[in-house]
Design a protein that fits this description.
This protein has 322 residues and is mostly beta strands. Helices cover 2% and strands 43% of the residues. It is built from 1 helix and 29 strands. The protein has one helix spanning 55-60, and strands at 3-8, 11-17, 23-27, 33-39, 45-47, 68-69, 75-76, 80-83, 86-89, 98-99, 111-116, 119-126, 137-145, 150-159, 163-164, 168-169, 185-188, 190-194, 207-208, 220-221, 228-233, 239-242, 248-254, 258-262, 270-271, 277-278, 285-289, 304-305, 310-321. The strands form 8 sheets. Strands 11-12-13-14-29-23-22-17-20 form a 9-stranded antiparallel β-sheet, with no helix packed on it. Strands 1-2-3-4-5 form a 5-stranded antiparallel β-sheet, with no helix packed on it. It has a 5-stranded antiparallel β-sheet with strand order 19-18-21-24-27, with no helix packed on it. The longest helix has 6 residues, at 55-60. It is globular.
Length: 322
Amino acid sequence: MMIRKNAFGEYDIYTIENASGAHVRILSLGATVQSITVPNKMGGLTDVVLGYDTPEEYLRNDGYFGAFVGRYANRIANASFTLGGRKYKLTANEGKNTLHGGVGLSKRSFELISAEDNRLTLGITDPDGSDGFPGRVSIRVTYTFSDDNELVICYEAVSDADTYLNLTNHSYFNLSGRDDILGHELMINADSYLPVDGELIPTGEVRAVEGTDFDFRTMREVKNGFYDHCFVLCGTPCARLYSPESGIMLTVETDMPAVQFYAGGATGVRLGKSGAVYGKNSALCLETQYYPDSPNRPDFPSSLLRKGERYISKTRYRFSVE
């Protein structure tokens, strides 16, 4: 396997293609997953993620389509936290709260570290004080795509000061490649989830899914699109997603403690790749991560990265035809 590099405006686009013709395209802009194109049950190929055709669209639009998200995926209440006895004020970009790190990294240019066989590594250094976060953080993200149609994303980082870090990928999946995801079937391997307030900040409660609309422990249809909640994982795989239309099954595995299931209910209407129209519930996200607002919740698993220690996390997306 080889990686092809092409121009994407002033940025680069890298294509990792396997023996079957399935491929993944990654942008240097935001280390973004621009497309994941895999076999379907009809013998063809389906692009299963939302995205855009030009860098201008990525820079102009919100939504984080396919983006590398950091420094802190999800929300931090009141755009602040206290660390080492000092209060840090962050960029507030969702009302009074911080979402996905504030200005964040999703619209920044990543540099090429290496591109060999089926593995691409991009990197970025975020200065001390960026969006209010302490520490100069050096980050690498590696994308590996196999002949078995498996995409592995590995996140690595080191900081020169204690800081909080929570990195993820924000791909929007539609395994049919069109219409909406309300007919998709989903399993999330979680016995509990985090209830939220009106600003989607966790209340602090960890609530059992049993007997609620949040019970996805066995495969069932995504019948409504109101979900934007963090699920507390209790085993592997993290999740499975299936489209009866295309026959494509996505299996997600991760070493992170939680996954944010966002059903796209707040996605506004916009034009995407090849003139596709995206809107409410056009796709869903399964963002593997630490709990939201964990810097302010000592009872949540800690996302603290100590000075000089290595942050490493891996999430695996396996595509098959069922």
